[in-house]
Every structure is written in C-alpha cells, then in structure tokens.
Design brief:
Beta-Lactamase, alpha+beta, Alpha-Beta Plaits, elongated, 27 helices, about 25% strand, 28 strands
Length: about 725
C-alpha cells in the first residue's frame, strides 16, 4: 500500500467521523466503495429471530440505493454471520446457487465481515460485492477492518440509542423513565461522564471507570482535565471549547492518561445541556477507546513506508525524508552525498542457493548498514539488491573513509545453513551542489556512477562526473537501438579463419557478431555484447549468430563437397547468460543443424571460464549435453582471470585457446614464450589441441610452430570476413 493511498484512507475515515446517525453509515459505505472500487457495499443489521439482515445503508453502482431486507439462508452473508469474515475472489454465484441476486447482478467477488458489539455478539454485517474477478482479495482486508471497526461502533451506538428510546417510551407509559435511564447509563460499553455547569464531574458509568482506571469516588467533584495526557497543547482545548460553545456539540480525538500513567487515544463526543432559561446546566461526554484502531493505522503506515524484508525505509519514504534533508542542507550550506549501493553477486546467490538464502543476505546487509548509519542520515532499500544512503560529510577524505567502511560491510562473510557467502558491493556517489541540485538529479547521477563502477571495477566505488553521464547516455542509446537491431536481424556474423599451422589449411572459422547501425554507425562488440548480457538480450543475440552461422557453413561445405574439397568447421561463442540453468534449457540443439544438413562435428562451441565459476555443477551437466550432441568444445582466453587446471581436467574440452595477450609480446625464451610453451605442453598431456589467438607476425607463427601449437588465428592469416569474402578466402586457401 502506498503512502498516498494510506493518506486517502485517513481522509476517508476523517470524513466519516464528521457525520452521525444515518449520514454516518451513508458516508461510510460511499467512502469504502470508492477506496476499494466495489460495485456494492452495504451495512446490514442482523435480525437473529427471523435470520434476516436489514440494510442500514446500501451503495449500489455509484449511488446510494434503497434499503432492503433479505434472508441469510444460502447466501455468503450466512457464512460471515457464523464465521466472522469471508473472502471469495471469483465465481461466487456458482458457490452459492441459492442466492439468485448474485446471478441476477452478475457478481463475481465478495468480502464480508461480521459486525460485533463490545461483548463479541454479532449485531450486523459489512459486505462489499464486485463484478470483476479477483478484486476481492486479502490486500483490502486491512482497510476493510478499519471501516468494520467504525461501523460496529456506530451500529452498536445506534442500536443502543434505539433501545434506549424504546425503553424510555415504555417507561413514560409506566412512569419509570428515571430508573431506565440510570440502567442504560450504567450498562453501555462506552465511557459516559456527566458534569455540571462548571464542568465538575457529577457522575460516571462503570465503563468509564474501567477505561481511565480511577474509581467513581476518585472522579466525582473533580474536573475532567485531571485526565489530560499533556500530549495536546492548550490551543487545542481552547479551540474545542469555542466549537462546543458555538455548536453545542463537539466530536474529535483526545489523548487521555490513565491512573497508572499510560496514555491512550479516545474518540469523544461532548454535548451541552441547557435548562429552560437557556443556561448551561450540564455537559454530557462519551468516550470510546480507539487504541486498536490507531495501532492498525500505524501498522498500515509502516507497511506503506518501509521495506518488508530489511525494515529500512522504502523508496517512497526515502524520497520524502531525503527531499527534506536536502532542503535543510541547502539552507545551511552543508555538504551532502547520495550513495547508491548494489550487491554485485545476488543473482548468483539466488540461482545457487535459492531466494530464501538471497533474502537472508539482503536482510543481513540491511542490518549492517543500519548499524553504521547516523541518525541524521537517510537510508533505504530501493528494491532487489539496491540500497541508497543520503549522508552529510565535512570532508571528502571522511566521506571516502565512510564509503570504504560500507564496502567492507558488504564483503564480510555471511554464514548460512547452505554455506558461507561472501558478497561484494559496487557504489556510485553523487554530491549535492557539485553534481546536482535536487534529489532526482542526484539519484540519476549516482546511478550513472554506480553503473561505471560495476563495469570497470566491480566491488569498488566511483564518483559521478560528466564523463560518466556521457557514457551513460551512450549506454542507454546503444541499449535502445540493440532491441531494434535484434528484432530486425541487422546484426550479422563475420568469420575469422583458424588455420592449421602445419599446412596452413583453414580448419575452423570463428563467428564474430558485427553491427552497423543507421544512427550509431559501427558499434563495437566490446560495447554491445556486455549490454546484451546485462539486459538478457544475449540469448536472442546468441541464437541469431548461431542460426546464421549454421546456414553459412552448411552452404559453404555443400559447395566444398561438390568441388571435392575438405570441410571447414565453425566456432560459435556462447555467453554464460545463454545457459539458463534454472529452467533446464539447453543452449544448443542438434535440430538446427539437421534443418540445414550440417554435421555437429563441424561446430565448436566456445565458452569462457566464467561459466564454470558461477555454476560449476550445472555447467558440467550442460557441457556434457553439448558433447553428447556431437559438438566440440573450446575454452577461450585461457591464462587470464582465474584460470584453473580443474577446468581442463574435469570438463570435456577439445580445444584450449591461448589468449592474444601472451602472443602479442612473445619473444624466444622470454616470459610469454615460456608461459605459452607450458600451456601447449600441458594441453598435449591432457589430450587437448591448442589455438593461439592474435597471431600477427611471421615470427610469432614460427615460434608457435616450433612449440607444437596446433592452430593459429589472427590478422597474419585474415581479418574477420563477411560471407562472400570468406568463401573466396577458403577457395583460395584450398587452391594453394
């Protein structure tokens, strides 16, 4: 429930309380129907003898309707009367075939609650009916409860008044009016107080004694001001007495204090009584303890303004408090920073350990952040793995120290039943006055800085700058154009030959995505592939490149076959994002090859080690599935990052690709030379073939041959080629 909606509930309840009698019920059903978008809302008084309900007020499709009576037998109201509260989201006419009205009016949903007096006895019903399915839901029960409490109290008061009037009428005939009035006074559940013209207490009933904790003897002769809590100023009581003198009646909320010192809220009604000469003779006051209503309102407010998991402020509350804090800081010329924080690896935690453990990580981090936050700071969980902190500072040095302490909090190991988890966090910071003048701009700029931090030094922090803003705009533009490019299929594969270093024949060709946009021009794969991975578009991009590559090489090998030349394979890169472990989907299928008559042994799937790092067990299952389909596997960029021999030992790779960073500066007997030599020898011992990337000179080629490297790829042999140029290149290579 939003803060705005919570305020609408408060306004509606206030409007209801401004009325009494039948108007009270009419305003109540009207306000409730508008709040929960109900087609019908009614308050019915129970007749337990005839087992009927008589409507006190009825809201009917946009207006107040005529009152009616109906039998409870066979209706959902019978369930409410006997059970307390019922919710039927849909098809209520089917559930209660005996209630013809439900079918006649095309009703689908139903919410009803029994109205009870203070002793728990059912006295009425509050019912809402809906023509649309699923409008009757548990989300509205909190609001429904608030209105039911008000309806119960007013209906009980109305019944009490009716009974009192009835009894008075009877006693007038029997001359027993005084005795009955005293008994009614004593037995009503609302606290009643009668005072004289000077407002000194003359009489109270037992309910009032129980409410305030004082005995009748302690109260008689004293002024009701002895009950004041001190929580409301003198100006409040001055206005109350002015209103009472002008209108003869006052209604409103008071905070009183019990004998034991506890303060409590009451809904009070005070009336003036005048004698025949028009002089004030008495004040009659009634009091109803509304502590439970206030507690429910506070609960609803807390739910609307706080994150359910961490207990921190949510985005609504953050915006409100942060806006006020910024205004104060600007008036006082204080330094203030907006810090956006994002858990880097929460998705991996969720996929590996489950969302329960992921929620535990978020909750633990929220508690740690709250523990180090000052009272003057504004901290919130914006949703998911995103946190925001608005903090004052007196120097950039101290601000950086605070940010580093925050990063340290995120990296502390969290112990769970599923294992120890060490999360990390990236942080983006925007400074008020330096980078922006309002909260919206601070939020955008901090998000831009956060994005830069995640891209360039994950687990660290970055301050906002104009350079980041330009990069963010470029990022957004590329992302928007990427959706269009994939839907139109304008991204196409180019192919870089991989040659056999023994005879220089073309063995495979690596498929590389190339994109020329009508607005952006040539977009580098280094720019659009990370965006595709972060937005989930990598699956669609991978399928596009894979399908087109299969088509190209099916055609190429068909031509080579007719010319009695050797077949050429294709290598296709697959991102970890294309392996959907949670749904058990397979990243490649042999059916595509069958459609184009291409043998799977001519297709090599190339992956990086990050797949095994994120989900080692699932990765092994998927890679074995690929091998069983007849494809070969290549491990790309070996020697960079966190390469582990376990990948080569336990996973079914056929090729090991040596990263071009080792080839670029390779000199005989130099460090890179010895490292490449070790990699090649290790691969041979494990039964793997090696492919050297980035081969650009004859000297590099010679050294690789001498070391026993199997294949080479690089500009020495060919740049990436479109389809037509690739066909010519392969034919020319075969001719040689």
């Amino acid at each position: 429930m939003s803060l705005k909606f919570d305020q609408s509930v408060d306004a509606a309840l206030k409007l209801v309380n401004e009325h009494s009698g039948h108007q009270y019920f009419d305003v109540l059903v009207t306000s409730l129907a508008q709040l929960i978008d109900a087609d019908y809302v009614l308050i019915g008084e129970l007749d337990l003898v005839s087992h009927q309900a008589n409507t006190v007020s009825l809201w009917c499709e946009g207006q107040l309707g005529e009152k009616l009576s109906y039998d409870l037998e066979g209706t959902p109201c019978d369930k409410v009367y006997s059970g307390g509260i019922c919710v039927y989201p849909r098809e209520i006419a089917t559930l209660f075939p005996g209630d013809q009205m439900l079918d006649d009016f095309g009703l689908q949903g139903y919410v009803g609650k029994s109205l009870k007096d203070a002793e728990g006895k059912p006295i009425g019903l509050l019912v809402a009916l809906f023509k649309q399915k699923d409008q009757a839901c548990e989300d509205i029960l909190g609001i429904f409860d608030l209105f039911a409490i008000r309806a119960s109290a007013e209906l009980e008061r109305t019944l009490w008044e009716r009974e009192q009037q009835k009894q008075i009428s009877l006693l007038q005939k029997k001359n027993q009016q005084l005795d009955l009035s005293h008994r009614v006074f004593e037995h009503t559940n609302e606290g009643l107080l009668v005072s004289d013209e000077n407002n000194n207490i003359l009489e109270v009933n037992a309910a009032f004694e129980r409410m305030c904790g004082y005995s009748r003897a302690e109260l008689i002769g004293n002024n009701p001001s002895m009950l004041n809590s001190g929580l409301q100023p003198k100006s409040f009581y001055d206005a109350m007495w002015q209103d009472l003198s002008a209108k003869g009646i006052w209604q409103g909320e008071l905070w009183n204090r019990r004998k034991d010192g506890e303060t409590y809220p009451v809904w009070s009604s005070i009336s003036l009584v005048k004698n025949d000469q028009g002089e004030i003779s008495n004040f009659i006051s009634s009091f109803r303890d509304i502590s439970s209503e206030k507690a429910l309102q506070e609960q609803l407010y807390h739910q609307a303004t706080h994150d359910y998991l961490t207990g921190l402020s949510n985005s609504f509350e953050f915006q409100d408090h942060a806006t006020k804090a910024i205004a104060v800081a600007q008036r006082a010329s204080q330094h203030i920073a907006l810090i956006r924080m994002n858990i880097d690896n929460l998705n991996m935690v969720n996929s590996s350990y489950g969302h329960i453990v992921g929620d535990m990580v978020v909750k633990t981090i929220g508690e740690k952040l709250k523990g180090q936050t000052r009272d003057s700071d504004v901290l919130a969980r914006l949703g998911g793995d995103d946190f925001a902190l608005l903090a004052g500072f007196d120097s950039f040095h101290r601000l950086e120290k605070q940010i580093k302490r925050t990063l340290q909090l995120f990296t502390e190991t969290i112990h769970t039943e599923s294992g120890d988890i060490s999360p990390s966090c990236s942080v983006g910071i925007s400074i008020l006055g330096e980078d922006a003048e309002d909260l919206d701009a601070l939020m955008r700029n901090a998000q831009t800085a956060l994005r830069f931090a995640k891209q360039h030094f994950r687990g660290g922090y970055s301050f906002y700058s104009q350079e980041f803003e330009e990069q963010a705009r470029r990022h957004d533009k590329v992302e928007n154009r990427l959706y269009k490019a994939l839907s139109e299929g304008v991204i196409e594969p180019y192919f870089q030959p991989i040659v056999n270093l023994k005879d220089m024949s073309v063995h495979h060709c690596e498929a590389l995505a190339r994109w020329t946009d009508e607005q952006l021009g040539q977009v580098s794969p280094a720019e659009f592939i990370p965006i595709a991975e972060s937005t989930g578009l990598i699956q669609k991009l991978g399928e596009l490149i894979f399908n087109r590559s299969v088509q190209v090489f099916a055609q190429l090998n068909a031509e080579l076959s007719r010319e009695q030349k050797s077949s050429v394979g294709v290598t296709v890169n697959r991102s970890p994002g294309e392996f959907n472990f949670s749904k058990g989907e397979r990243p490649t299928t042999a059916e595509i090859l069958t459609q184009h008559d291409l043998s799977p042994d001519l297709v090599c799937i190339e992956i990086t080690e990050s797949l095994m790092i994120e989900s080692p067990d699932e990765a092994l299952e998927q890679l074995n599935h690929i091998k069983n389909q007849g494809f070969s596997l290549a491990l790309d960029d070996f020697g960079t990052g966190f390469s582990s021999l376990s990948y080569l030992k336990h996973y079914p790779f056929d090729y090991l690709k040596i990263d071009q960073s080792f080839i670029r500066d390779m000199k005989e007997q130099g460090e890179d030379y010895l490292l490449v030599k070790t990699i090649i020898q290790m691969a041979k011992n494990l039964g793997l073939q090696t492919i050297a990337e980035g081969v650009e000179t004859e000297e590099q080629c010679r050294l690789l041959k001498d070391l026993g490297c199997d294949y080479g790829q690089g500009y020495l042999f060919s740049k990436p080629l479109p389809q037509d140029e690739l066909f010519r290149f392969v034919r020319d290579a075969e001719a040689v």
